[in-house]
Amino acid sequence: MKNISATLAIVWRIAAPYFRSEDKWAGRGLLAVVVAMELVLVAINVLLNQWQNRFYSALQAYDLPEFIKEVWIFLGLAFTFVALAVYKLYLNQWLQIRWRQWLTQHYLGEWLDGATHYRMQLKGDAADNPDQRVTEDVKTFVEQTLTIGLGLLSSVVTLASFVVILWGLSYKAPLYLYGTDIVVPGFLVWCAVAYAIAGTALTHWIGSPLINLNFEQQRFEADFRFNLIRVRENSEQIALLKGENAERGRLLQRFGFVIGNWYEIMRRTKRLTAFTASYGQAATIFPYVVVAPAYFAKRIQLGDMMQTGSAFGSVQDALSFFVTAYRSLAEWRAVIARLDGFEMSVASAVNLPAHEPAIALEVAGRRIDLEQLCVNLPNGTPLVAAKAFTIQASERVLVTGPSGSGKSTLFRAIAGIWPFGTGTVVVPEKAKLMMLPQRPYFSVGVLHDAVVYPAAPSAFDAAQVRDALIAVGLPDLAGRLDEDGHWNRTLSLGEQQRLALARALLHAPDYLFLDEATASLDEPSEARLYRLLAERLPHATIVSIGHRSTLDAFHSRKVALVKDGAIHVVGGERAAAEPSAAR
Fold this sequence. Notes:
Blueprint: H1 2-15, H2 24-60, H3 64-112, H4 116-123, H5 130-172, E1 175-177, E2 180-182, H6 187-207, H7 209-233, H8 235-240, H9 244-296, H10 302-319, H11 321-324, H12 326-350, H13 352-355, E3 360-363, E4 368-376, E5 382-391, E6 396-400, H14 407-415, E7 421-427, E8 433-436, E9 445-446, H15 447-452, H16 462-471, H17 475-478, E10 484-485, H18 487-490, H19 493-507, E11 511-515, H20 523-536, E12 541-545, E13 557-561, E14 567-570, E15 577-578
Parallel strand pairs: 3-7, 6-12, 6-13, 8-11, 11-12
Antiparallel strand pairs: 1-2, 4-5, 4-7, 5-15, 9-10, 13-14
Helix pairs in contact: 1-12, 2-3, 2-5, 2-10, 3-5, 4-12, 5-10, 5-12, 6-9, 6-10, 7-9, 7-12, 9-10, 16-19
C-alpha cells in the first residue's frame, strides 16, 4: 500500500498540472465527456445483463413474440453501445494528443531553460536519455494513465452495479447441495470475491518482477539507440580511424543487454500468461458450475442461469482488474519511475546554485569583473581562481595556457552555465555576450536559419546573411541560403568556423568570446578574419583563447594561465590570482 500511495502521488504530480494549465478547460471537458461515456457503457452492460434473462427465458418458453421483441431491444442497445464506444475512443485520443502536446512542451521548457540540460550532464544524474523520456515515456504515460484510469473507474462502477444484481440472484439461485438449500446471503458475490482475490494475489506474486524488468528494458533500449545515434553523428571520425569493428562490438554488447533482459521478460511473461489465461478460462465456466445444482433441481430457469453467469463474469472481471491489466500496470509503473527521475534530475540541476556553493552571476556596471572567483570541477577540485580580474569594454584580450589549465571552463563560468565554484561574475546590464567554441553548432535545416541561430529566421534578411557569408570567405554558400542540410556534417571544420564568425557579424555582440574559434584555419585566413572583426565590430570586446603567437598582434592584452594556476597579464592591467588545479 505504501508503494501504491507513493506511485499515485507521483502520477498526480505529473498529471495534475495539465488540468490546471491554459488548456485546462479543453482537457477537463474532454475528460468529463469520456468518463460520462464510460459510465453509460457500464449502464448498457447492466441493461444487456437484464436482457439476457428475458431473452433466454423466451427461448425456454418458446415465446416467439417475446423473442422478436427482445431482438429489437438488443439491436437498439448494441447500436448505442457501438456509437458510444467509437466516439469514446475518438475523444480519448483527442485528449491524449492535447495532453501529450502540453506535457512535451512543459518538459522541453524545463529541460532547455537556463542551460538546465547542460547542468544535468555535468552532474551525471540518473536521467539518462532525455530524448526517450520526452518522446516515448510521455506518450506512454498519457496513453496508459487514461487507459488504466478509465479501466479502473469502469471496474469500480461495474462492481457496484452488478454486485446488487448478483446479490439478488443469490436468493433466486441458492446454494443447493445434496437436495438441501443452504442459505448464504449473497453467496454468489462471495464466490466472485474469493475467486478474484486469489487470482490477484497469485498474479502479483508471479508478475511483480516485470516492473523492474520493464524499467531496465526501456533503459537498455534507449542506451542502444543513443549509441547508434553517436555512430551516425561521428561517422567520419570512425571511418578515418577504421573503427567499424570496434563500434560493431560496442553496439552488439549494448544490444546484448537488450536481448538478455528481454529473455527474462519472456520467461516471466510466459508464467504470468499461463496463469492469467487459465484464470480467465476457468472464470467462464465457474459461475455455471456454482448455479448448476439449482438449475437442474428446477429452482431457476435458463434465463436466470444465463443472467447469473453474465453478472458473475462482470463482477469477477471488475474484481480481477489488476489480474488482466498487470502487464500494462508494470510498464506504466516503469514509465512513471523514469518520468519521476527526469523531473527530479531537472529540479536538481535548476536548484544547483541554491543548494551548493555556486558562482554568482550579477548584472551591473560597464565591464566584466571576476570577483573572488574560484572555478571548480563538479567534484569540487579547484581549477581556476582570480581575486580581481577585469575585462574592459572594447578591449581585445588573448587568453593562453596549456591544455587543462581551465581556459574553456573559465569562459563557461563567465557565460553563466558553469555553477561549480565560488565568487561572482559581474557582466554589464543589457550586454550581449556570444561564445564561439572550436566546434560550432548549427541546427539541421535551411542554411539561412542555421546561420542566424539562435535568432528567429526573420531577424535577418537574406541580403544581410549573404553579405556576412561573403565577408568571411564563403561566397559559394551565399547562393545556397534556402538549401536544407545537416551543416555540421557537410561542411569542413574550417568552413564551420567561418560560418560561426558570420553568425557573430550578424548578431554584433558587445562581448565576443572565441574559444579557439579559428584554430582550424590557416594563419593568413585567421588574420583576415580578425581584421574583419575589428572592422565590422569596432566597439565589441573580443576575448580569444588561442595558442598561435600570430594572434598577439590582434590583441592589446595577453592573459596566460599556467599549470600553477596563476593568471599573468601582459600588456595591460595586471590582475592578482590564486593557484588552481589543472583540469
